[in-house]
Each structure stands twice: as structure tokens, then as C-alpha cells.
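User: Hello, can you help with two protein structures?

Assistant: Certainly.
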Amino acid sequence: MQIIKGLTPDEWRIAIACVRAIVEGPWFSPDDPGADQELETVLSFTRAELREIYKQLCADVKPDNRMLRAIGQCLNSVCGFPAPKGSAGRWVATNESELEALCDKWFREVDP
């Protein structure tokens, strides 16, 4: 498993889960005709790009700066907008305070 310096294996798994949560979760529903455009506007990545990044991360590809930016954008979205506080539990196996701590840590120590 590729782990970014400064993150624990659990934090890395949570960060990857946030990408999946944005791609498959309810906040940018594929059933909503405008959701893909909103997703791209908010995150600067298309759903297809995020899906591919998620697949690469699951395949243990060493993340480049683009992939790290995508993870950061997804973390930020799961911690705030568009995900309301407390709504990430089904998608990310951690509690709200740990998720917020990881988001803070990511932008302090990892963000490219």
C-alpha cells in the first residue's frame, strides 16, 4: 500500500475512501442531471477523472500531485460542502472529529 509521508495507514485508507464517497455518494448524485457539472465546478475534476484516480489508488499506484490534489478536494468536500456535517459515516469508516482532523492534517502537511 502506497502511503503518503506523514499519514498513518488508517488515515490513508480514509483519504482514499473520501474519493469513493464523492464519486459514488449522494452529494453529487449521478441521477441529478446537473450534478456532474456541479461536481466539476466544485472540485475541478470530473466524475470520470475521480473514478479513474480512485481505481489507481486502489491498485496501489504511487500518487502524483494531481491525484493528491483530487484527494484533498474530496476530503474537503466530505468534511464540509456539499456533504453536511455528519453525513459521511456511510461512506467513510471514521467519526466526524477524526475526519476533520485528517482534513486539517492533509492541508497542513500533504497538500501539493
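That covers the first. Now for the second protein you mentioned:
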Amino acid sequence: MADSLVCRAGGALETLVHQFSDPLSFYRELIQNSLDAHSRRIDIQVEHQDDTMVISLDDTGEGMSAEIIDTRLTRLFSSGKEEDLTKIGRFGIGFVSVFALNPDAVVVDTSRDGAHWRVLFKADRSFVRLARDEPVEGTHIRIYKKATAEECAQLVARSREVIRFWCRHVDGQIFFQGELQNEPFDIAGPCTVRRSHKGTTILVGYPEDGQAFIGFYNRGLTLAESTREHTLPGLAVKIDSRFLEHTLSRDGVVQDARFATLMAEVREIASGELPDLLLEQLEQRLRENQDAGLHYAAATALFGWPFRRRWAGAALSHRDGEAEGDSWRAVPGRHGSCHICYGPYVTDLEPGDSVARFRLRCEADGPGDVAQVDVYDGASLVARNLKSEDFPYPDRACDFSLAFRAAQGSKLEFRVYWHGQHPLRVEQVEVLGGARQRPGGLERNLFRTPAGAEVSLREVLAARPCLTAWENGPLVQALEEQGKLVLRARPGEGSWALLEALFDQPPVPAALSWCLPRPADRQHEQQAEPLRAAVQKLACSNGARVSQVRLAHFDGPERVAGQAVPGQLTPTGQLDRLPAGLLSRPAGLALNLDHPLVKTLIEVSQKEPCLAAYLLLKLFLRPDAEEDARLALLTWRQRCRKS
């Protein structure tokens, strides 16, 4: 080592050393310098040797000459990159950042133009340049610092995290502890538009997790990433451009005219090319019978409300009632009428059209008021009173939607006032808002019928509301013969979620709205003749207009009987009642052979038809005490006449 040059850095160095909030930012700066030297591979290692931690960084770049060492490496703000937009380490402070770790020594070995050099930096920031005899491929840097084994292990974990973040999409190979850290420049999701031009590549797509995200990069090095600022709802955006620059403190991206131009191009892709590509790919996957779950999820985000928040009933505020799992319930005689749910005082809903959705379940045992739901902001913006007939399915929750307009600065409550007459359970409250995108691609076939026929988005929107079923069967075929559209969808599937987003309410399963009882065979009809005759006689004596009583299969034990004619489509809303009064049209009553009690009552009716008829009608009609007494008296009289 013949030649040497010794220098001592001035006070300006200390200011630059500590300008980064994270001392490990030196990794980013050194990797930038290696990339600027056209290195295609960078190897980083952290080792613990004799109470000393050694951090090494080796690249395969162009190396440095004595002139470069003297005028660029060791001279502040002289990087020589000011006019080259393809090199982002422009401030001449990259190498200075190694001293943020307060090392005991830093050694740089490099070769160029047949000369080989070592630069040794001491703990007091003084340095010496020495000539070497052995050549070095590229540049090798060693950082030495006293540390325990535990401190070294902690730095290894943190280093891996930092390097992966800053070098996520570098075009080359970045190895840490022998493992490749960078990854392809892409978006993990079902559909992404890639546009490249003028040293710029833009990606806009629908992420798998639905989390809005934006990242800014220069040659794959991270400038800034965010899940809030500059994001577009439901979209992931990545921009790699030589026109993007990081701020002097390396904690953001410069927002100049070139930045604005790139963001305008992102918005243009997001509003046109991307949704068109999504719907095209969704249609293609359905046609080829490929999994379309992620594409449906992206389409749901596209057409749904940008603002969507929900709370379990138990998570809201309450004046009375009790928790039942995540729900909140009120029971007559145990709780008083009041706002059993209110809150949660939403303040960040954008002004404009919005929807509040209440999911409630009521087991009403008679007519009457159940509850009032409203949206409140110092005054009621919209309200609806709910009665027992608004809950057709006692064993299922029902959704009730209220449309309203949110104002700037609103402090919104979503309230449920319980009238105290019928048991009520609040399962969840949901609010939807923000500017929605109008459905496009109306001619795209985005749905299928249970039989596999293609259905366009235009047909679906025209059929509002549409029915759903997962399997093709007699009920679906009968509905289609009557001109009703039935789509293949079920809860938890992508097609179901998209329909819910399009119509602002859950789809309606065909089996919940319609029933097609199958006729029983002749043997069962004959065996059940005593029960059928007794039921018809008792029902008519009780004031019901019953034209016939037949046996049928309801394909499930949910109900003991229903107002229906076997083999004919019947709305489920009329199954649980019988017409009464002289002006009512007589209807058929079908006894459900799939209900275990019906089979038992057929046997009982062979000896006690009146008693069997009474038990069946009591279970079907669910009379109150007075009505039950009248029905029992009629049964007793008919039995006495028979005997």
C-alpha cells in the first residue's frame, strides 16, 4: 500500500449523518450508489465476530477510481448525478449515512481502471485512502461496530425488514443473509393494467385483500408507500418512474408537475381501462369455468359503496337489553321500551347519498309494532316504523335499509327504538356512503343461471330484484317457466356479493320466496284420508276457507303444513295463513309429509282423527290462548258428535 491520503471531516458531516430518523437508512443509500454504478447483484451480510458486529455490502458495479473517491465518495454534495434522472442518489450524502450507526470503523475496497484502493474511516470520522495490491470486483464495504450477540440478532431482523421495504422492486438481485429480498414489479390481485412509456411504468389493479395502496419508486427503489394519502378506494397503484424524486430527507416523494401528470394518468386508467379489463376477464373466466372469486370481489368493490362500515349490535351503545353473542336483544317483561341500540357517532362519512342498513330478527307472536329505526344527527334524518308483518321469517334476520343524505360535519347515530311488545335482536348496523361508480359493461355476461346459461349485467339490473339458487331443480325450473330470472349464487360466493353491491340489499334465495310442494304418492294419500278429512272439517268450522287438504313433500321439516296446492308454485308469504271470511277465495292446504309430526298424526288419526286434526292445526296456526280455546271446543264437539 504505497500511496495514502489522510483527511478529517468537518462539522457539516455530523448534520448530514443524523438527518435520517432511522439509522438503518444507510442500507438504502449504499444500495442506491451500487445501482448507480450499474451493479446487477448486491450481497449484504451481518455477522458477529469476537464481540464485534460486521456488516458487509458487496456489489459488482464499476468500482471507483482515486478521483471518484476524492471528489464524490468523501466530498459532501458532489455525487456527480445532478443531471442524470436515472440515478436517484443525487445529493452526495448517500455514503455519509453509514455513520448514523456510530460504527467503530468503515472499510471500503474498490478497483477501477487497473488501480485498486482501500478507504478506511475511523470512529472519529477521519479517513485515509490507501493503495491496494489485490483487485476487487466492484466495491466492497465493511462496517465494524462493537455489539453483543443479542444486539446483532436484533439488527439482522430489523435489517431484513428495512432492505425488503426500500429495495422491494429493484431491477437486479439484492441478497441479505443469502436470501433474495426484492420481488417483481407487480400487484398481487386478479386484474392489473400495466402501462409503460418514457422511463415510466404504471400499475393500477385490484388487490387481493381489497386494501387501497399506492407506492412510488425510482428504478425499483422505494420513494414512498401509503395506504391513505393519494390512494384510490379499493385500488392498488404502483408507479416506477425516472421522473419521480424523493425529498432531501428521504421521507417522501417530490410532488411537482411531473408527479401531477403521473397521478392524472393513474386516475384515467382507474376510471376506464381497468374496469373494462376486469369485466372482460370476469366474463372470460366464467365462460371457461375457472375460479372467478377474486374477480367477483374486485367487481363488488368497483360497483359498491367506497365507504362501508359495520358494527355488531353488542358493539353499539344501549339503554336496556342484553348481549347475546355479538348481537343485542330485548325481551318483553324483562326490558323496557327504549333505544336499545344507538351510536356510534360517525363523523367521517363523505357528504352525499348514503344508506344505513339494520339487520334485525324478531320472533313476533302476533300483530303489533316492533321497533323504529332511524338515522339521527341532532334530528331524525330518516325513520321507519317496523311491524310484526315486516318480519316474515321468524327464524331468520331481515335487513331494513334507510336512504339518507349526509351533510358536511355530521355526527351520525343509527338507532333502534324498541316498542317492548315482541322479542327483538339487533344483529348488526351498517352504513354505506361515498360516490359510487355507475355500472358499465352492461352487455358482459357476468352471471349464470343454476343450469349454466349466461346472463348479462343488463338483464340482471332489469330483473330487480332477482332470485338466487345454487342448484338447478324443479323449483328453479318452475320459476323460469313463469319468466322469473334465477341466478346461481349463494352466501359466501362472489356472485352473491356482487348482487348485494348492485342492489344495496342481499339477494333473495328462491327457496325463501317460493315453494313448490311435491305431491305425495297415492298410498300415502289413502293412508292419510282420516287426517285430511278431519283437518278440513275442523279448519272450516273455525272460519277458514279450505277447498281441499292434500299431502305433499316440502323438502324439509321447517313447517307442518302450508297454504298450497301440491305441484303449484306458491309464495312463501302465504304458506302460514289460511283465507277466512265469506268474500275470501277458498285455498288448498298441504300437509308436509317431511315433517315427523305429520307422520305420527297420520297414525293417530286412524283412531282419533279429531284429536290429530286439532294438534296439527294448533301447530300450524299458532293461535293465542283465546283462539286455542275456541279451536279445542270445536274439536271436542266434533268428537262428541262422531262418538
